[in-house]
Design the sequence.
């Protein structure tokens, strides 16, 4: 697992010497710890943040360190608890509200869309809503239709919200710190299968800016933009492609809104080919938006339009059984084949990459 | 009562006269906003807000003119907001349904029923945190209609507020109507206070809209919460909406409501009642002051420019 | 107003002789009346459907005709009432649930997305959810941020839901009948400003199929795909363009999901230019999806890629004041100018179309 | 009681043994689904479902094995579903958290807390409509946990059900836990039944999980609703979850719960109690039957094929 996060760390953290190898959930915890220490107005709450499992470890130890006023569980009332977070944010606090599944956010859309996103604008700057909403995308082991949704595009659609989905420990920590310091509501999307992945992470506090994409691996033949857990699959695809001499550039937008189109377009100008792999459904998704803006920006500059393709969840509810679930998600091999076809043309002879080891998927059996 | 009656009278009259003035000029299209008037309901807003401190907060629904004024919201800015002008309390971006004046303790109102109730609890939570540092307990009053109590977030908030003993007062303005639908078609029973008591919350039910009674109830509730740092307290106030749900007219011909009930409430009008308690001089003087304030606000609104085009893009994101 | 609906009626209803000229809300009422007469399992409910205003007239008279069991108001409980609708639908009824503003649907996203959209799939066909959710987009006269949202893309994103947004009386009636008969949850989007527009509508019952776009006016120079109320603006733009010799083909998708891309792509193959005008925000919107699919389908056929542009709401919360609100929405003139630039090239000399009469917007002052 | 005790014993034992068997084989990864076991809580499911007719409905949460089995859900199809097989009750698409068997009156369960409560009310509304045509009043039982009552839709549903007098029974399985959070941190007070009474709803609180008492309460409630066509009735049943929230193990070492409480509940185990009421012969026979049924279901599940690839795209839309 450390391959890609390694590369992030080495390529980007050259001058931050003091790194340690930690897992995604530990990186998050480090962010909470450092920000709560720095700013007494930061507090963290939500269902189960204060139990002995501590949201898969990401909040463990915080009650002991910061007390029950600043780290507390709630009743099962997602809608009102979101309103509570917004109110506290308007009053100058910096709440971090946690949902253990993104699917549950459908219960608090009214507060997020009608109030959090709009308050600063509608009240003409009289209030700000510096709120972080942590939310986890589930996957695998029969979690199924109501525990596996990735709904980032619903939030990207709404002016006033920011949306981030870091794919590795380094960016999880830096993005969380940036999100906590941001004066807007930020939907912070974690992926359950990333929780145990390791990466080299600076021990000190740092921000990964919201609105800046990262070129994870440079390449020349095709640009692959991948989101959230699909970054791991894209990196697997890159290896397969490498083995047959195709050089893929892998970009992680990290921040889905604001969206760093400049980095993506610069890459596609070089490779002339863009494959977008979303960890979500396609229709009206992040993939549609990235495709659309790429075309618009190329047209604006009168450039020859690149070849573009998208991959994402099958247009169905996520089934629980493993054979169907495997078909529901893109993976390193299907991504590699798609990129191969884009590079070699439709008439290229069929290619089947070898089976990957995918520890974070194949070995996942909870905890949920 | 010597100072209280004129004070409450003035506030109620200001709300009444301003709203009736809005109704009067509505046909000129100067006010380009759907208006939900509180005519007939003024004693609640005034009874609630009068005993509050400037740094206490009142949180509201779209029917928010009355509490905005009663809490001391800037009148000129309110009028300019209704006119869609740049000097409005929200620069013309909010209109009648989303009035806000944080410097005077008026939290932004919302056009979506129920939405502001949990937000008020969040503000109260913040005040509870603050009080541990400052030693001073501010409070929030969350106002909503009978319809608002039907939304799930109301119960979620009540439970949370009781669990965390938040420094807030809930006030249900029960006018027995949600748009045109009477309460009997929406509430299984009318035992709202009894229900709220099961959360361990102190409740009060005031069925005659008596402005002194409302004021006194809020005042002792506020004092209790300030002293102990612990709330919430719940108050249900019966009242009656004289005019149509939205817009400047009455709709008595529409035949969906009991006109005898209206007549009863009209007879019980707290503004008339307090007028009767004042000598003519005081009354006249207050009426003049109120008329002048409204005129002044109107002129301000008229003279204020519309927002410039670039305002469309300000405050989408905070920096 | 009758111009465009006229053309729908004449071009498409040649053999349905028995037409009458009625307004959008009357067409809806006619659909309810006819379907409730035909099928005793259809019922209509939601806040205020049974009051003396009858949802701007669209439900007037139905209580008297069908009784309070089949036409009834509810408490203000959008979330639970949606669950009630889903349960009744699972039991074989065909509920029509009404929201007077689309913004309020944010309160029932959990039921719609987690249950209505998924039940048929997740329970492997054991239940169906033949539900119509009527919802109105508000606009103008200071309704502002929380009463003017058009959130169709949120529903298009979710497999299992259908989404329609008819722009005229004829399609309103036919689509409503089709939606009621459909065995899936259908989000039926009305626009407040269309309510008073008139059109020739067959008196008999008929279906406008979900999934078929309509070419409202044929043209050769540019394809304009417009959604909901933007259809009216696009038709105004067409007139302006016509006056300077540019021929625009106006397409109304009617059904946003399923989406009839074939009709759109066939048009763009002819005109080589596509302007998408959504009545919504752009990011991850219907416009992104239409743009993306057009590109994908052209690439699939190795066609030269067309010029594509999108217009929609400004990326802000909708402000209430008229001068800013005017800038928030595309209109016939801004659409015409954009199409003109696409046809004539960026270097074409500036053109300013004359001011339109836009009765449905300029004269709107409620009722709300 | 002569026939009742063996009947209830058998149902409870079937649930217990099947779930313990799941726990036993869980490490083999045959069951590829997060399992929320009801071990210790069986008397509620059985007490509820035993007096229902086949065409009555039970509506559930993700912790749904017990009611599925008690209501007569197909055991083979359940096991095949847990195995992710094509002959599962939902063809392998649903897994443990979304069991469904409409032909036996088991409404599809949901993994989102609270979601099924209003849906049950919709089913009850349909039954009320149906009864006007058929003259026969079916009923729905909506089951949820103590945590479920904290979601706003619960109160919205209670109000609507009371307003429309829906033919349904609400059952709160109060195990005083939501995952690991004790009720004291989530409920402002424990006066749930008192609160529900304020809606004009008849309530019953059963604090010892006595299977006969639960059965009898449901049975008379159902009869009353069938006779009058009017509900709802609300029942709160205390119970205790013996194992971890999700998964096959106990988690007593985790130190978040009161082990004396567990010991008390264990002593009160209804399965042991009923076993003691039966003669050895009957007991042995029932145990054998239950073991055979489980074995049979397991073999069925093992032999069932996985769904074919094209199943991914079936039933996305109904035709
Ligand atoms: C969530 C939501 N549902 C529906 C509406 C439409 N609506 C506006 S006001 C209103 C009635 C509210 O009644 P109540 O809370 O009693 O307040 P009142 O108008 O009587 O002051 C309704 C249903 C809304 N604004 N928000
Ligand atoms: C809306 C929602 N919020 C949170 C969760 C996560 N979650 C799953 S089970 C559970 C506890 C539910 O407790 P209760 O309703 O008492 O049922 P029990 O597990 O005790 O049977 C929680 C919080 C969820 N599934 N759905
Ligand atoms: Mg009211
Ligand atoms: Mg529980």
Sequence:
């Amino acid at each position: 697992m450390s391959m890609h996060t390694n590369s992030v760390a080495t390529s980007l953290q050259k001058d931050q010497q003091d790194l340690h190898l930690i897992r995604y959930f530990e990186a998050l915890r480090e962010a909470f710890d450092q920000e709560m220490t720095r700013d007494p107005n930061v507090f963290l709450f939500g269902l189960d943040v204060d139990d002995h499992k501590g949201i898969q470890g990401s909040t463990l130890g915080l009650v002991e360190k910061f007390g029950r006023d600043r780290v507390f569980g709630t009743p099962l009332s997602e809608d009102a608890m979101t309103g509570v977070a917004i109110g506290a944010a308007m009053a100058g606090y910096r709440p971090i509200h946690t949902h253990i599944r993104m699917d549950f956010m459908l219960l608090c859309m009214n507060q997020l869309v009608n109030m959090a996103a709009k308050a600063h604008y509608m009240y003409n700057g009289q209030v700000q809503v510096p709120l972080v909403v942590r939310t986890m995308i589930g996957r695998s082991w029969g979690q199924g239709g109501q525990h596996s949704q990735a709904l980032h595009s619903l939030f990207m659609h709404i002016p006033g919200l920011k949306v981030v989905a870091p794919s590795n420990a380094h960016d999880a920590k830096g993005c969380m710190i940036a999100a906590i310091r941001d004066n807007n509501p930020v939907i912070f999307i974690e992926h359950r299968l990333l929780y145990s992945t390791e990466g080299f992470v600076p021990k000190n506090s740092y921000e990964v800016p919201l609105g800046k994409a990262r070129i994870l691996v440079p390449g020349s033949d095709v640009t692959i933009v991948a989101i959230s857990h699909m970054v791991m699959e894209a990196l697997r695809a890159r290896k397969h492609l490498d083995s047959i001499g195709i050089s893929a550039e892998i970009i992680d937008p990290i921040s889905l809104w604001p969206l760093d189109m400049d980095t993506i377009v610069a890459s596609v100008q070089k490779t002339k080919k863009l494959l977008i792999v979303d960890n979500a459904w396609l229709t009206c998704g992040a993939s549609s938006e990235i495709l659309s803006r790429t075309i618009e920006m190329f047209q604006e500059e009168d450039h020859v339009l690149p070849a573009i393709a998208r991959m994402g969840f099958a247009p169905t509810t996520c089934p629980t059984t493993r054979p169907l679930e495997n078909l529901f998600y893109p993976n390193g091999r299907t991504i590699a084949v798609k990129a191969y076809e884009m590079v070699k043309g439709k008439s290229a002879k069929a290619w089947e990459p070898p089976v990957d080891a995918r520890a974070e998927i194949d070995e996942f059996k909870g905890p949920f | 009562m010597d100072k209280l009656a004129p004070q409450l009278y003035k506030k109620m009259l200001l709300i009444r006269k301003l709203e009736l003035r809005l109704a009067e000029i509505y046909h000129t299209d100067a006010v380009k906003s759907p208006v939900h008037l509180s005519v007939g309901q003024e004693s609640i807003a005034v009874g609630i807000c009068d005993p509050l401190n400037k740094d206490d907060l009142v949180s509201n629904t779209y029917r928010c003119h009355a509490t905005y004024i009663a809490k001391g919201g800037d009148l000129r800015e309110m009028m300019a907001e209704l006119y869609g002008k740049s000097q409005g309390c929200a620069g013309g971006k909010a209109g009648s349904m989303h009035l806000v004046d944080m410097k005077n303790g008026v939290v932004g109102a919302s056009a979506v029923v129920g939405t502001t109730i949990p937000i008020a609890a969040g503000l109260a939570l913040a005040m509870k945190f603050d009080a541990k540092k400052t030693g001073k307990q501010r409070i929030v009053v969350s106002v909503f209609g009978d319809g608002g109590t039907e939304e799930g977030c109301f119960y979620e908030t009540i439970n949370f507020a009781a669990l965390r003993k938040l420094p807030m007062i809930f006030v249900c303005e029960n006018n027995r109507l949600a748009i045109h639908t009477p309460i009997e078609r929406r509430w299984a029973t009318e035992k709202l206070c009894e229900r709220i008591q099961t959360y361990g919350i102190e409740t009060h039910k005031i069925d005659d809209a008596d402005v002194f009674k409302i004021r006194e109830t809020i005042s002792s509730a506020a004092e209790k919460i300030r002293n102990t740092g612990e709330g919430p307290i719940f108050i249900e106030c019966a009242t009656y909406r004289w005019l149509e749900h939205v817009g400047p007219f009455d709709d008595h011909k529409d035949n969906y409501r009991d006109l005898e009930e209206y007549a009863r409430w009209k007879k019980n009008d707290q503004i008339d009642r307090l007028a009767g308690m004042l000598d003519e001089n005081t009354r006249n003087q207050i009426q003049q002051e109120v008329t002048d304030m409204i005129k002044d606000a109107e002129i301000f609104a008229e003279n204020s420019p519309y927002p410039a085009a670039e305002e469309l893009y300000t405050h989408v994101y905070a920096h």
